[in-house]
Each structure stands twice: as structure tokens, then as C-alpha cells.
Amino acid sequence: MSNGSGTASGKIRVAVWNEYMDEQKRDTVTCHYPQGLHAVIADFLNREEDISAKASLIGDPEQGLAESVLQNTDVLVWWGHVHHGDVQDNLAQRVIEHVQGGMGIIFLHSAHKSKPFTRLLGTDGYLSWREAEEKCRVWTVAPAHPIAAGIPESFVIEHEEMYSEPFGVPDPKTTVFISWFKGGNVFRSGLTFERGFGKIFYFQPGHETYPNYHNEYVRKVIVNAVRWAKPQLRIGVRDCPRVDPLEW
Ligand code: ZN
């Protein structure tokens, strides 16, 4: 059992997990993310003095989810889309156990269908969507929440993939953001949950063919979320021990 983040420097250790397979190397994506979405996300996180971020890819050993990686990760950031089904069940379970033991996790955009998301929250991750280059306005509905620090009452994203309610998730601990899309749909776009000792944040912006991880407010939300999700307590896998009474 250990407290919080464990680097000698005291920095929050972040792993940015991504697929980064062929479809993310199309011109429509590389024009915004030449080295991949994970590289841009890790780069802006590393500009913060208290954060140390590196990438973890599905092509890495143990799909980027080796025990040694997760043990040295305070907050895991997850971007996935077309390869959700390729993530091995035992590795998804490993992620879940680390979250239950205190590791923070931030699910971005299409990660609502990833195995760790659906299994941690007990859902199929249902929503409806449309790719129509729609204007999106993100409303801050919990302005006192740490994840909303420095975020205005609302901000505009010029183009984003539309995600719509109903969103198939259990009632969140806090709804921090709700997004409106030009086509009329709305979506709870920033939600917090807790499972075991781990903090969970879902954030909708980030379709790969739009440059939205370059948006200053999107970045600020993710930075805030990393700080919020940092473990306060970290333990190993728990079983259910039989215990003697404390007093006879
Ligand atoms: Zn998308």
C-alpha cells in the first residue's frame, strides 16, 4: 500500500494509451496529429511542471498494459476506437484492478466502448453519433468542480463528432460538462465516477479528424482531470479476508 504518486520528483505519472494503428495514419488524421493523438496529448501534459506523461500503445509488449507500466502509472489516459475488441480480456481486467486499487483513469471520446470503460461501469456504453463537422458548445455545469477550474461558463469547438443522449452510463458522481451540437442533440460530455479507490473521468471531445486536442480549453480540462484523478491511496488486489473480533 502506498500513498499517491510515487516518483522521486513527486510528479504525477501519466500513461497515454492509444491504438495508433493504420487508420490513425490517414492524411485526415496526420494533418492534425502527425505523430499520433497520444503524442500531442502527452506533449501538452508534459508542459505542466507537476506531470510526467509518456505514451503506451497497443503495439507495445502486452498491448502497452504490462504490469510494470500500470504499477508506475498514477493516471491512465485512454483513447481507443476501432480496436476495442482486440484488447485482451486479461489486460482489460488488469486495468480494472489497478483502477479499483486507486489508479486514476480518463476515458476520451470513443473510449466509451472500450473494455475497461464498459466493464468498470457495467454498461454497453450506448450512445448515438453523427460525423457532420458540427459546431459544438460545451457547457460547464459544475463550475466549482476541480476539473472545471479555469474553464468558462461555455466554450465553442468549431467541429466535433456529434454524440447524443441517451448515454448508457450509470448515474455519475458529478456531471461536469454538457455539450450541445448544432444539429440539436445534447450529451453529458464530462462525467466523473469512482470505482474502488480509483477516480474515473469521461470526456467527449477528441474525434481523430478534428484538431480538438489543440483546443486550449480541451487541454485544460484534461490537465485538471489528471490532477483530480491522481490516487490518494494505492493498494493491490483485495480479497475478502476472514477477520477475528477486535475485542473478546
Ligand atoms: Zn470519433
Question: Can you walk me through this structure?
Answer:
The chain is α/β, with parallel strands linked by helices. The protein has a domain at 2-125 and 190-234: Rossmann fold (3-Layer(aba) Sandwich), CATH 3.40.50.880. Helix content is 21%, strand content 29%. It is built from six helices and nine strands; from the N terminus they run βααβαβαβαβββββα. The protein has helices at 27-30, 37-46, 67-71, 89-100, 115-121, 216-229, and strands spanning 12-18, 51-57, 75-79, 104-108, 128-140, 154-164, 174-181, 186-195, 198-203. It has a nine-stranded mixed β-sheet with strand order 2-1-3-4-9-8-7-5-6. β3, α4 and β4 form a beta-alpha-beta unit. α4 packs across α5. The protein is globular, with a radius of gyration of 18 Å. The two termini are 29 Å apart. The mean pLDDT is 95. Bound molecules: zinc ion. Zinc ion is lined by residues 109-110, 161, 207. Zinc ion binds at residues 109-110, 161, 207.
Topology:
Layout: E1 12-18, H1 27-30, H2 37-46, E2 51-57, H3 67-71, E3 75-79, H4 89-100, E4 104-108, H5 115-121, E5 128-140, E6 154-164, E7 174-181, E8 186-195, E9 198-203, H6 216-229
Parallel strand pairs: 1-2, 1-3, 3-4, 4-9
Antiparallel strand pairs: 5-6, 5-7, 7-8, 8-9
Helix pairs in contact: 4-5
Bound molecules: zinc ion (ZN).
In CATH's first tier, which class of the domain at 2-125 and 190-234 applies?
Alpha Beta
Structural class given helices, strands, pairing? alpha/beta
State the order of secondary-structure elements, H for helix, E for strand: EHHEHEHEHEEEEEH
What portion of residues belong to β-strands? Answer: 25-35%
CATH fold field value of the domain at 2-125 and 190-234 = Rossmann fold
Which spans have pLDDT < 50 for at least 5 consecutive residues? none
Number of strands: 9
Q: CATH superfamily assignment of the domain at 2-125 and 190-234?
A: Class I glutamine amidotransferase (GATase) domain
- Overall geometry comes to globular
Spatial arrangement of strands, main beta sheet? 2-1-3-4-9-8-7-5-6
Give every kind of bound small molecule, once each.
zinc ion
Give the radius of gyration: 18 Å
Average pLDDT taken over every residue: 95
* CATH architecture descriptor text of the domain at 2-125 and 190-234: 3-Layer(aba) Sandwich
Helix content: 10-25%
Give the terminus-to-terminus CA distance.
29 Å
Number of helices: 6
Biggest sheet features: 9 strands, mixed
